[in-house]
Every structure is written in C-alpha cells, then in structure tokens.
Amino acid sequence: MGCSVCGQATEQASADLCLTHARALDSVRQAYEAWANAFGSIGRADFLKRVAKQQGTGKNAREIVEFLQQRPEMWK
Amino acid sequence: MQTLIVCEKPDAAARVARALDEDGDPRRTETQGVPIYESRNRKETILVCSALGHLYAVDSKTHTSRRCYPVWDFDWKPKHLIDKKSARLARWIQVISSLASNADRYINACDYDVEGSLIGYTILRYACHGADSKAQRMKFSTLTEKELKSAYRNLAPQLDMPLVEAGRTRHELDWLYGINLSRLLTESALKQNRGYSTLSTGRVQGPTLKFVVNREEEIQSFTPTPFWTIDATVARDGQTYTLEYEKEKILTIAEAEQVVKDCKNAFLEVESADSRNVQQSPPYPFDLSNLQSEAFKHFGYTPSRTLAIAEKLYLEALISYPRTSSQKLPPDIGYSEILHGIATMAQYRTLASKLTIKDSLRPTKGPKDDPAHPAVYPTGAPPRRHLIQPEANLLDIIIKRFMSAFAEASLRESSQLTLKKEPHRFFLRGTRLLKEGWTQFYRPYTSDEFQKLPDLKVGDKIPITRIKDSQKFTEPPPRYNPSSLLRKMEEENIGTKATRAEIIEILYRRGYIKNIRIEATPLALKIINLLNKYCPLIIDPKFTARLETSMDNIQTLQTSRSHVIAETLDHLRPIMLDLIAREDEIGSQLAEVVVSQRIASLTFDYPCSQCGSQLKIIRSRTSGKRFIGCTGYEKGCRFTLPLPQFGNLSITRTSCKICGFQLVQARTKGRRPMTSCARCYSNKTRANATESSTPAAPSTSRKATDDLVEAASLVKDQ
Ligand SMILES: [Zn+2]
After folding, report:
1. Which end of chain B is more exposed for a tag (fewer CB within 10 A), N or C?
2. Which residues pair with B413 in a beta bridge?
3. Contacting residues of B for A24, CB less than 8 Å apart
4. pTM listed for this prediction
C-alpha cells in the first residue's frame, strides 16, 4: 500500500502516508491548534477552507488539506 | 643560464614577463598558438609560459570506459586525454614540455594557494620531466610590477609541498566520490531504459543540495497560522509618528481587540526616555565570501559572477588576489602608497586625501586569516581602459571598503520613548548620526538612516490619533539565494572559498535547483531522499566538514595525503557495494523522476495560440538548434518561436509583462542569467524584417518547419 495522497512508498507497511505527507499532516494539525486558539474556536471544515486560500500554504500541506477535505476521518 | 617560469593564466604570464624584463618590454612569440614571453636582464634570459588552469586531472588508472564503476585506482593524466572539450590543452603541454628541455632553472609562479600550487606542480612534474623536485616558488598577492620584482628576488627554494599535497588529496577525494556516486546514479537510471540523463552528486555537492532540499521541504509542508499586529500613531507639531506595540505578534483575536478597545481615543503618558550612543567600528577588510555577499546585496551579482569579475580586476593588477579568506591588511602592502594611488582618481581624491594626511595608518582587522594572502585590497593603480559597469562597481566597493578600514568608528545616538496606557506599552524609536567616521568612505553601501523623535519628556501626555489591529499570517522560511547558500556552506565548513560558487553553479546546470530565490526541483528531492535512505553519510555536512579539516591538516603537516585517502576508501567501499546491491531499486525510482522532470522542464504552461496544444522546447537533430515548437505538429500546427542558442535553458514561472507568455532563462557560467520572452523577441525580429528592405536575418520559418519533422519524433520518444 502506497501513500494515500501521492501513492509513493511508505516507510512502514502499515502507514497511510509517505514521510513527506506525514510531515505535512503534522504541520496542518499543529496549525489547526494555533487557529483554534487564535479565534477561540473554529470548525475543521472552515479551517481547511481558509488554509487552502492562503498563499503561504506549501504544496504538500495543500495536498493534505484537500485530502482531509475529502476524507475527514483521517484527522484521527 | 635559462629560467622557465610557469604561470597560471596567459594574462598573468604577460605581467610577470613585463615586470622581469629590463626594459619592461619582453619579446612575445607564439608556438602553436601558445604565447611565450622572453624577458632579459644582464644576467639571464627568462622564459615565461602559462597554463590555462589545470592541464592535468585525476582519472581512472586502468578502466577506460566512462560507464564502469566502482573505480578505486586513479592517476593524474593530461586533461585532454580525459575530456574532449580540453583538446587544445595538448598543444600547451607540448610547448611547455619542449621549453622545459632547454631550461636549467624552474619556477612555479601560479597563484599562491592550493590550486595554484597544484597546477604548477603537475606541470613541472609531468610536462617538465620531473622538474618539480628542483623547482622554486614565486609568491605574490598582486600582479603589480613592484611586488612581482620583489617576489622574484625572494624566491622560496622549493615548491610548497604541503599545499600541493592538500590539493592533490582534494582532487583525488572529489574524484573518488564524484565518479563512483554519479556513475551509479546515472547508470542505474539508464539501465531502466527510459532515456538518458546525466545525474551527479559529490562530496560537497550532495550536502549543499541537502541544505536546499531541507528548506524546500519545510516550505512545502508549511501551514500558515494567523497573528495580529497593532497599527497605531501619535501626532506632534504637525507630524505623524508610528508607534510600536510591545508585542510584535499577538496570537489571539481576543487580545488584539482588547488592546484596541483599551487604547482607542486614549492619552499615552511618556513613562521613560532613554538614549545611548552607539559606536560602530569600520567593517572588516574584504575576504572573498564577504565581498561576494556585499556584491550580491548591492549589485545582485551571484557569487560566481563576483569571483569572475574580481579575477579579471586581479589580472589587470587593479586589486589583490581575490581567493582569500583573510580579513587583515598587513603593513607590507604599503598603505600610504595605495592611498596616494587612489587619490589620483578624481572620484576618490577628496576622501583619500583625508586619510593620506593622517600621522599613522592603522587598518581595522577581522578575525579570519589566510596563510597565503591578505584581505582583498585595491592596488591603487587607476584602470588603463574603460571598465564596464560590473567591473567598475566591484572596484568601487573594494576601494571604498579599503579606505573605510583606516577611518574612525562612527557614532550614532539611538533613543527610545516608552509610552503607557496601563497595562499597555508602546515605543517610539529614533536614531541620528553624531559622527560620520568610516560611513563617509563607504557610501552608498551603508545606510544613512535617520529617524526623528517628537519633542516629549517623561510625564507628558499625547493622544493616540489612530489605532487598529491587523490580521496577518505567518510565512514560510525564506528560500536560499546563491549568496546565502554560499554563506551556509561556509558556516558548515564545506567546500573551499575557491570552489563554493562553482558548486552552486553546477547544481543549477544539473537541473537540481532553479531561480535566484532557490527552489529544489523534484529531481533534487528524489536524489537527496534516495541518498538519505541508502547512504546518509554521503550527504551529511558534518562528514564532509570533517574531511575538509583533514585536508587542512595536510597543509599543516598534522596528517598525510596517503592516510586521508586510505581512510576515505575504507569509508566509501562498503557504501558503494551496498548501493550496487540495490541498484535496480534506486534506478527505477530515479528513472521515473528523470522522465517527469525532463517533460516538465521542456513544456510550457502557456498553450499554443494557434491550436491550443502544448508548446515544448525542441532541439533539431540536424542543426542542433533549439526552438519552441507545438505538440500539435502531427495535427498540422506549424507554430514555432525562436530561443537563445547559448546557455543552460529553463522555463521560468514568470510571465512576460507585455504579452503574458512564460519567460525563458539562459544561464551561462560567470554571467548574469538572461531572461527573455520568446514571443516578444519573435514579434520584434519580424517587425524589423518588414521595416528594412534587405533581409536583416535569414528567415527561420522554413528551417523551423523542417526541424519540426524530427521534433515530432522527439516528442514521441518522451
Ligand atoms: Zn505522499
């Protein structure tokens, strides 16, 4: 099984994401904490929509954002 | 008695010969296109010849195939036998060799550093029938007549072998790493039968690329987070002052709104007023990397370009040897004479005269040192020809930096007012120059920043005229540019002052990095990830830095060449064997990226204006010329656009401001990258052709169509 985002090989067979996308997922998760704190509260869907619009969002983070929009259960 | 002097470059040979000839007019002859100078004085005839950089290089001792690996045996061979592009060097070796047969004294007068010592050594050893053992060494830092004469009078009795040994080791190690790893990458990808691409990595190249790749990954996985700033102003005597809030970033909207609510229409009370005088010493004299960094900052020149320009100025005896890491100016360079020389140039007369009248001249000095050369300094000689702008710019900053070194410290008053509205604090900062000191010598390369403060004292109250909060987002870490990447290499102690700029150029040429704000390409990400997975030590900057230290230790006789080589082989052998065992796995991953990168690097995002198909860069198989062609060729579209024929071509992400077409960039070594729009260029030449009655340029349209027939098959190949 490859990475759920890009299909590339994953480090461990059980992992859903390649190293690159696992790292991007971490970054998006951490950012969510910061956003929720900054606005008092924010829904995940709203957060993803707004992050997607940001210019500074990196390519891999953007791919994770799209992935999470399609498969919200992957927040874990 | 006949003396043979070997210089590194023809221009240097001409200067050495002129300095050593009694009448300053040596006889110049040419044999097989190789210039030779004959200088005469009462005692002897001196023949001065030159290399063209390295005439010898490392190559495999037994294997002749370029594709064979691993290779562990090596030898020094004439460069023209290794590299087809160096064919003309055969004549140089032949001519030097025949001159050497009649000489009874030999002198190495190549640049005095590791490379120069090695260039001279290999020529004396291999082209001059083992003359290295009896040769003498001429050492100098500028090509002025005075210094050259003095260097000739004070020859070192033998070659500087520790430098030679360090140089040999560096070339041999780089060859071992480069050849083995690069061949493995190239061949493993090639064996997948998906097209050829030269892939390379090396002892310094790998870790350097890793810096860029690491940064790229940080940028690509970056997610912005919000923060707020407070924008507020006060007014006094008709002037508006911008306040600085005590927190640069506020992390919640609630807090930001509270600050605005608390302070709206409020009066701020001056809590304290502080000022202090800051003395700033003159900047250190230039070492090479500092010169490269200033030239990038003020003129936008890449490090390799700055080095190329500086070498030219050195060969014309306008500045001292630029490949130096020293930040010191020793007295024996003759401060006063140089300053008097500078004062003869109209634009520096007033400033230089302020220094020449000083009782004692003591330059500032930096911590960095170089055993062979002082910091970069001007010789004080005015240029004998009209300098083109980049040369003039570089000479100007070098002269001004030199003068600054002798000036006094500058004195600046820096003040701060703290204003409060409990529990909040705001600041107003001001600065003014009290004493110019060195800054007057270094304009326009130093800022004359001046910021006035309102006339307020402790206890005074002043109303806030405007306050609001603004929402912002954090930004990804900045990309490296060629100058900051070079600084990073220096900080991590990888490469040498002489090679770092070239390594960065190689990364561009190989398609691993692109743009001035450096981006790592998918190919670079793949290669670094593969190396990281299979042999992380190869791209570990610490490992490379340790090798650099070993090589420095050869120069100071703390270790030997054979020891360092043996250690390296012990390290590299098992890595190579392991990699070869996984060749197939590595190759299939590489081939995939190579193919996609090749397609991406040749394809424009902007579609063909005639049929809407993709436009591509195509090289004609018959003429070798490249042009933009349409992939709709098979459907009958004959649209083409011309392209620059020289330099390494890349398609940029920037669009032409006039017509919107994607710009292409051509990079040539040592030159400013040329960015141009193929469509505007084509329109312009077409307009010119219709205006003038005689055909200005041969029409390319017919030819381009012919080429496209082959191009169509090329497209299929991909
Ligand atoms: Zn992935």
Report:
1. N
2. B277, B432
3. 220-221, 223
4. 0.80
